[in-house]
Design a protein that fits this description.
It is built from four helices and 13 strands. By secondary structure, the protein is an alpha+beta fold.
């Protein structure tokens, strides 16, 4: 009985040591991966990285991580000229294959999301001078930009300074986001000298999206009360290197 008890205690102690070593190793790997994402340019700031699956050490030996989660706030993304903050970014990556030294990593598939506030979104939209159809003019400064706000499920409201323009929609193709369907009416139409006429669609293309992902092919952008939610996905993504 004593021999059995000693063996049991020994196994428990050994299991605890192995578990501790595994958790230490995964913590070190998470920190290293976060640093490498910044230095490789895949993220504008250091994210929180969580490597799932157990045990971790067997995943290291196979160089294949089952599940990796990334989160960060206030990441900077741009359209080639203007930078805006991406809030509440979260991504889940599956099938992450890494090199021995963590110098490179590829992802079988990944999904994620983040939010651009409507106030920040206005920086990516063109000024009034570029929007008016048929050379019409509005009594706002030439640098006044189109601004958007929530217009209900799948819709956004547009305005130019204090003038409401109308309700339209947003959609994406590749990493290009387009807002369209806005029609001048009421006060805005009267000042422009036209009524019932549509404003030309406005678009911007986002560069350097986080973690090597892209806007999802379906529902890449979703209007919410707080801003425009960006939905990401990707297959065969190059995460590092």
């Amino acid at each position: 009985m004593r021999g059995w008890l000693k063996a049991t205690i020994g196994l428990v102690v050994l299991s605890g040591l192995l578990l501790g070593a595994d958790r230490i190793a995964v913590g070190v790997a998470e920190d290293e991966a976060a640093d490498r994402m910044v230095s490789s340019g895949r993220m504008s700031q250091r994210p929180d990285v969580s490597i799932g699956g157990f045990p971790f050490l067997t995943q290291v030996l196979s160089k294949d991580l089952d599940d990796v989660s990334i989160s960060a706030d206030n990441l900077m993304i741009n359209d080639g000229g203007h930078q805006v903050a991406l809030h509440g970014f979260k991504a889940r990556l599956s099938g992450v294959r890494v090199s021995d030294s963590l110098n490179s990593a590829t992802v079988d598939s990944g999904t994620g999301s983040g939010l651009i506030t409507y106030a920040d979104l206005a920086q990516l939209l063109p000024p009034a001078a570029q929007l008016m159809p048929g050379g019409g003019k509005l009594p706002v400064g030439s640098n006044t930009r189109l601004s958007l706000s929530y217009g209900g499920p799948g819709k956004v409201k547009a305005s130019l300074g204090p003038l409401p323009v109308g309700t339209g929609s947003v959609h994406s193709e590749g990493n290009t986001v387009t807002a369209d369907g806005f029609q001048l009416s009421g006060l805005a139409g009267m000042f422009a000298g036209v009524t019932g006429q549509k404003i030309d669609p406005v678009s911007f293309t986002l560069d350097s999206l986080p973690a090597g992902l892209k806007l999802a092919d379906k529902d890449g952008v979703t209007p919410t009360e707080d801003g425009l939610q960006l939905n990401f996905d990707g297959k065969g993504v190059k995460l590092l290197g």
